[in-house]
Amino acid sequence: MACVGVFVAYLPVTTVSASLPAVQRALDASTSQLSWVSDAFVLPMAALILTAGVFGDVHGRKKVYQAGLALSGLGAVVALCAQNVQVVWAGQALAGLGSAALLPTTLALISHAVPDPRERGKFIGLWATALTAALALGPVIAGTILDHFAWRWIYLLPVPASLLAMACAAKLLTDSRAPGSRRLDWPGQITAALAITALVYGIIEGGATSFTDAKVVVALSIAAVSAVAFVLVERSSADPMLDLTLFRSPAFTATTLIAMISFLGLIGFFFVLSLYFGMVQQLSTLEAAWRLLMVSMVCLVLGAPVGRLVHRVSPRVLIPGGLLVSTAALLSLTDIGVHTSFGSLAWRLALLGLGMAFVITPMTATAVSSVPFHQAGMAAAGNNAFRQVGGALGPAILGALLSTKAVGALPGHLTDAGLTGQTIQHVKTVADHGGIGAVGGLDLGADTPRVLGALSEAFLDGLHLCLVVAAVLTLLAAVVGALLLRRPHHTAPTKVAGPRAAAAAEGPAAAASQGHGEAPFLAGNHTAG
Q1: ∠ CA 268-274-276, rounded to 5°
Q2: b/e map of 322-343 (b: 16 or more CB within 10 Å)?
């Protein structure tokens, strides 16, 4: 049931990402509106994943599991019926809430059912495989559907899957809670959600309009004030959502920064790459899916071999090394053009997957083993939350860069294409108000091919800038790792109340970090999403 739950939770991630060009064409959405399609799903995950785990500890994991499935199915129904992009946002947000509930709860269910840490490792490995399979299969499923049906039918599969899983869970699962007196940290939750949401909103809207716009300035100010309030609240809380003393560990600080910075660059890269396949290369969703599959399949295949290296090779070598490989892969993509072939792209995307495999697998394992044992669960959950924050900021920041650069470069490419001043002014006005996606829908008669050619060149200018920025961010994460990572030496206490109680007391994420052997690797691998 844990595998089914996490598959349902993560299927929308790449299914929707691969379908963004089709959604853009059908709903006449701008680039900033497409950014919200992705971020409406990721934001609830980033903001609520810590609290969802605690909620399951307090009120029962089975209840939260079923609520997560219900929200995932409901979100899919809302998006399935959408007639405009705003309703798609609402559906994505509901599905994101469901995923925030399912991710920590599914791990906690495994911890409760399999108390032995070594035995549990096999089941968490299956859980991680189900998660990665959802990410890998999502684009293929979307492409197959879109080859025969409208974009909205990509949301059909999660509906029966959620209902069937809920029916099975009602009979098969037993409920469990964490012993002790954990309490929900509502002030911390509210301030964290405000800070993350306001920051992403400010970046997306700033890229679409101007960063001096009043609503953007207000949003970024709210983000700053909320972030400061979150720090003050967590420092004074008796039961904080995120214990800030964790950041006294250089290794935890490093892995948290790496998680946020690298996923900002990588998730943002996948967002703009999916638009490149649709808008520039005019590929079908299935054709784009086979290209995106190169990255996730390499990660899936290399997950276990890299996991065996975690206990033999220092994280200071593994993680920065993987990030440097990812940086090289991103830089190698900066010369792609309109007619770049599948073969030319394949080895570069496979190289990116290779680098990511060496980062994702050991990252959380390092985070949880770099802090005292009793804080391992919070460390894993905190690392995952910051990763989701980076994933939310990626499409926002790189989407804004792409749109700004492409719109700015478009007049020059229109001139190079031999178009007249009146046509250039008309296209520029459309781009300023509706973004580059709106230009793609223009019908200018005999001038249309030249306009679309100029649009492709302008898009490539923006894409190349995004690739350089993503590479710089990944390189920055590698430098942080090289400077701060050390092989941690924390050991478990000599007496623990039993593996089940220890895992439950630490919350859901501790289930993946208990004991020795395989478990720390799996704690790193389970957060591939």
Answers
A1: 105
A2: bbbbbbbbbbbbeebeeeeeee
Measured CA to CA, the distance from residue 20 to residue 322 in angstroms comes to 29
Q: Which residues touch 94 (CB under 8 Å, ≥6 apart)?
A: 71, 72, 74, 75, 78
- Residue 18, token pair as written in the block: 């691969």
Q: What distance in Å separates the CA atoms of residue 111 and residue 121, rounded to the nearest whole number? A: 10
End-to-end C-alpha distance for the chain, whole angstroms: 18
Cα distances from 73 to residues 23, 40, 196, 306, 453, in angstroms, run 20, 16, 25, 34, 41
Give the SS3 label for residue 20. Answer: helix
Closest Cα partner for 460 from 397, 426, 413, 418? 413
Kind and range of the H or E element at 206? helix 186-208
- Per the structure block, which two tokens stand in for 397? 């920041």
Contact 208, 30 (CB under 8 A): yes
pLDDT digits (tens, 9 = 90+) for 454-503: 889 999 999 999 999 999 999 999 999 998 886 544 444 434 434 333 33
Nearest to 239 by CA among 177, 175, 189, 191: 189
Please, what is the angle between helix 342-369 and helix 376-416, to 10°? 150
Residue 414 amino acid letter? L
Are the beta carbons of 223 and 199 closer than 8 angstroms? yes
Distance between CA atoms of 471 and 7, rounded to whole angstroms?
30
From CA 445, how far away is CA 44, in angstroms rounded?
44
Give the CA distances from residue 414 to residues 233, 406, 422, 456, in Å, rounded to whole numbers and listed in that order. 53, 12, 11, 11
Q: How far is CA 101 from each of CA 10, 83, 112, 448, rounded to the nearest angstrom?
A: 12, 27, 17, 48
Which of 306, 303, 343, 348 is CA-nearest to residue 325?
348
- What is the C-alpha to C-alpha distance for residues 217 and 517, in angstroms, rounded to an integer? 50
Report how far residue 2's alpha carbon sits from residue 173's, in angstroms, rounded to the nearest whole number. 10
* Rounded Cα gap, residues 50 and 240, in angstroms: 10
Give tens-digit pLDDT for 406-432.
888 888 888 888 887 788 888 888 887
The pLDDT of residue 364 is 64
Q: Which residue, 401, 267, 258, 242, is CA-closest to 318?
A: 258
Give the burial class of 422: count Cβ atoms within 10 A of its Cβ; 0-12 exposed, 13-18 middle, 19 or more buried. exposed
Rg of the Cα trace of the chain?
23
**Structure pTM?**
0.75
Q: Which residue in 330, 331, 332, 376 sits closest to 356, CA to CA?
A: 330
Residue 64 in 3-state DSSP?
helix
